[in-house]
Each structure stands twice: as C-alpha cells, then as structure tokens.
Fold this protein.
Amino acid sequence: METERVFRELYDLVRAEMEDGGAHDFDHVERVLRLAVRIAEEEGADVEVVRFAALLHDLERAREDRGEVECHATASAERAERLLLERGLSREFAARVAECIRSHRFRKGLHPESIEARVLSDADKLDATGAVGIARAYLFGGKYGQRVWEEEPKDVRFYPGMRGAEYSPRTEYELKLSRLRERMFTATGRRIAEHRSRFMELFFEELEKEVRGER
Ligand SMILES: [Fe+2]
C-alpha cells in the first residue's frame, strides 16, 4: 500500500532527524503515536490522518529551541504538508494532517477543531502525565540541577520556563501536570487522564511522606 510505504519512509526520516538532535524526543513521538492510534480507534477518528500527524507533530521542535522558528507547531505543519505532497499523497490528506499539527498547541487562539486534531492534542498532553510524566519531569529536572522535593511550589507566572535549580518536579506537578486533565478534548483522553492523574497524585503524596520521614 502506497500510504504505508510513505509512512515507513517518513518514520525513518523523523527518527534520524530527531536522534541527531541528541535528545530523546523520538521516544516521545513513539509514545504519542501509540496512544494517538489507540484513542483514534476508540473515538472513531481517521487513524491514518492521526498516525501521520503524531509522527510529524514535533519535527521542527529543535528549530524552535534554537530560535530559528517562532512556533514549532506551525513550522512542523508546513513541513509535514510538503513532505506528504512530495510523496504523492493527496492534497486533502496532507491538509488534514497539517491541520492537526498546527493546532496541537494552544497559540493565538488556535483550537483543535477536527476529531483527529483533538486526538493528537490529547495524546501529546497525556505523555506529560502519569508515570511517564513523572519520569520526564525528573529527567528534565536532573538536566537543570533541580531538587527531588521543595517545600513551597513557586508561582509559575513569576518563573517562566522552570529550568532553574530552585524548582523541582513537584512545582511542575502542582502548577501544570495536575491540571492537564482539564485540557482533554475527547472522552477517551479524559478517561486516560483521570487514571494517570490519580497515579501522579499518589506518587507525590508518597514522596512528601517519605521526605518528611513519615513513611
Ligand atoms: Fe509532542
């Protein structure tokens, strides 16, 4: 099948490009891909559109980090559309994939409209929750010399980026991760978010008790 061949080709391209960046971003892409397909199936969304959108959604993130583009969602959407058209996929298909990618991040009032865009947005945010979300927050924290625990979570409005040593994943949890469940668009996403949120809640409760020597 032609579409499958294109998918395999782009899969290799995305993996090579993201691994070259030295980060583990491709692991995130693979997790989002698996989750997005599962949510798409349960929600009756177009699995093909969702699959391509998940694969290509963060392709230009490294360029945003380097300050070369303003928004990786917009840049990745444009590149994705080009990549699909160049490989002979239809204009309509390429446009639907690009729409998902463009709106997977809230910016300039852009909201995911189609069911496929909503699925991608949910899968992407879910990857910041649950056991994976905690693990990612600590990996990030380790990179920036953060602490295991801090007494008072800081108000994120005054500390954008949360990269410094004065923060901890607890701050990230209190201010951001614990609220992601409110930003789900699909019923399936909400159900998964509820499960993952309970796990995170339990983890940080346990962590606090251990830090205080109570457990
Ligand atoms: Fe992502």
Q: What stands out?
A: The chain has a mean pLDDT of 91. The pocket of fe (ii) ion is lined by residues 28, 32, 57-58, 124 (CB under 6 Å). Residues 128-215 form a domain with the Methane Monooxygenase Hydroxylase; Chain G, domain 1 fold (CATH 1.20.58.1910). The longest helix spans residues 187-211.
